[in-house]
Amino acid sequence: MHRTTQWLRASAVVAVTAMAAAAGGASAASAGADPLTTPMGQRVVALLEGSTKFGPTAGPNPWTSFVPKPGRTDLPAWKAIARGSATARANSAKVAAAKVAASGTLPPPLIHDELEPSTLIGSNDTRANAERIAGFGTRANPRLRVLGSLAPSTVTATPGTAAPEDNGSIPLAGDTGIVGAGATTVSGEIGDGPHGSAGTGSGDFDFYRLQAGAGTTIDASTAGSSIDTLLFVFDSAGELVALNDDVDGTRQSRIVYDVPAAGTYYVAVGGFFAFPEDPFDSGSGSGADTEGPFSLAITAAKTDTDMYAVRLAAGDVLGASVAGGAHQVQIFRPDGVAVVGGKDVDATFLFPWNSPLPGGGNTTVSYVAEESGLYRVAVRSGSGAYDGTLEVYRPGTEQRPAGKVQTVFLDFDGGRINTGVWGGAGIRDLSPLSAFLGLWGIGSAREGALIDAITAQVRSNLAADPAAYGLNPGTAIRVVTSKDHPDIYGKPNVSRVFVGGTIAQSGIPTIGIAQYIDPGNYATEDQALVLLDVLAWPKGEEPSLNTYLRPSSNRVAFVAQGIGNVVSHEIGHLVGAYHTDNENDVACLIDAGGVGFSRLFGVGPDGIGGTADDVDVDFAEDTYIPGEGFIGLEDALNVVSWGFSRGKG
Question: Which of 34, 165, 352, 565 is the most buried (most CB within 10 A)?
Fold first, then answer.
């Protein structure tokens, strides 16, 4: 039976509450709280985003949507769509033509054969000993093919002993005996501890401790178990760093986690759907759900990494893809900072057809270079022969006629629009901005002032800030509106953001959505949609701007600030920025939806919008959001800055 995320949220609360009550115990849910709204619950949703049990294609595209609630997208289903679509796109004649257009020619790729023997680990695993590749770049050959091999791990597993109950937390974890590297297998049972359904009812979990060395990978699996498992990995501080529900179409779980630093880690097993709210407290679970016996295999082993060094110029748009025996690609700046990486994710179907960037492998990532220098590209996670592709091009807007500037048209007028562009129901009539003014307590006479203020906010985010603080000296953008200009969408080099309409009218359950994510901005006649019904919900719901409005608020200023930031978020996608983490301490305009709206709206310390302490939120350096497949530090301001390059062609 398919289960949607909404069903999961409701059933988790009901099930946890009922079991806790039956057992006479307590839990977060028994006190009336939804466990998925707690900090750990939100982390679980972010990492689990769309279990295969949630039903196919539940919700809008997760990469391009700004959703009002957490867990509203089905990432595994979308990844399956992405993989097939990425392969078709990579092999298309349109993309081949785009490569010619972007480079002026289509030379055969350079071929680099890895120098490290296929059975050796260590000779090219670091930035210091990366294999340097000459002749690749936008001023040389923009295409490179790397042929290499990852050496297999040689760790042998030994049988372990199941830890006695209570082993449901980090302090009580059983010891695997793994120090640095090693492997073990254990058997256990979910439900036999003091917090199972026969005990307090808060949920039983089995924790196992291991010491993982630098450069190792933890591989944990419940394959062969007779129950529907959840598998967790926590670090020594109790941070949930990895989570898996189902793998390969089964109800068992598997996590392959590349250890960022040597230390103590904890692998925990639970039954679907229950999680420990506090990994240091064995009685803090969200409820006793699936129970029964399980098998657990844990390996920590030194794995092969192959590192290559290539020279990039500031503003270069790099695409890196790998197929065959490798499953992860990671790019490092000249200063050693990991700027983007991905494992078993190829979302290049998000690119427009006239983007020249490659795709179609096990994993593909893209990156806009912040500075000129020697960058490292790491290939890892797997064993055996692999085939890597690197391609680099200048931003698409640079190829426009000299002095040409990208125009963004903000359309507030409502009317007929094809929502199928974003996965909606097709041609629909959407309400104009004016239909929502009264819901924010703004009189109709103030509509012009509101549009002017929204436009000023967008210009500040996309023009003034990138020009003042970005790394592209040639950044430029023109922002015009339906208030002051005729509808110019459809003309060359004009993108449109439609601001208006509702979820019901459009058929898209989101606040905002972009047509593409386009690193380098190769499609300059694309579209985004910002719906207004959620932003105008009654006071009390966090995504609503009304939640932060008070008698002391400057309503026009705050509503403009909120809408302008959401519009800027969607335009950020159109020029290549991916979602960043909405739960960390960095406020960034490209932060994902679901939580953290007050930060994106710029609400200040007083908790009231439209007051003197409101915060200017910008595109910034921030980590990618967990769960969407990418890791590293995205410089969103740099992506936007180069995405709006002035034409040089």
Answer: 565
